[in-house]
Amino acid sequence: MVFYAFFFFIVGERLVELAIAKRNERVLKAMGAKEFGARHYPWIVAMHALFFVSFWIEATLKGGQLSPWWPFLFSFFAAVQGLRIWTLWSLGRLWNTKILVLPNAHVVVKGPYRWLRHPNYLIVILEMILIPLLFEAYWTALIFSVLNAFLLSIRISTEEQALSAMTNYKHKFRDRPRFFPFRPVK
């Protein structure tokens, strides 16, 4: 029962986020935003969809039982959800699942962006590990963490190039680490 409630919560959360992203996309494109990374975006969508399928299958085959480490894992997951809300709130209408860049815009430097260039991607990285580990879906955690790392390497490069070319990103974020605060930048 806990597994199903948790699964439908995270799927519902993603559906709400997709609706917000679609609304934000319309607003940003009406303001003149340009889209980047359209070729890799379907692969990201497919990977996330398959992540949920894999998680469902692996966890239910194991009886949908919580990990013995669930209190720690769930506490960490809840903290990550707090970071997710803070990140989305900080970006406001600029948040999207696609790479949409407003020409000559000033990048957001509030919220978690004061310390990190990509808090949203950090959240995704952590969720790809935490969600499956909560229900001992180890293969899902491993396989999709590797796939996610590969796709994020393409996406982050594309996003940083677009932001550097069209906004004040390079000036504002040159000294901020990508994912881990308080780590020196090379």
TrEMBL record:
Superkingdom of origin organism: Bacteria
Signal sequence range: none
Bilayer topology: Multi-pass membrane protein
Transmembrane segments: 40-57, 69-89, 121-147
Alphabetized UniProt keyword annotations: Membrane, Methyltransferase, Transferase, Transmembrane, Transmembrane helix
Pfam families: ICMT
One Gene Ontology term from the biological process aspect of the record: methylation
Coiled-coil positions: none
Any one GO CC term of the record: membrane
Localization: Membrane
GO terms for MF: protein C-terminal S-isoprenylcysteine carboxyl O-methyltransferase activity
Protein name stated in the entry: Methyltransferase
Origin species: Thermaerobacillus caldiproteolyticus
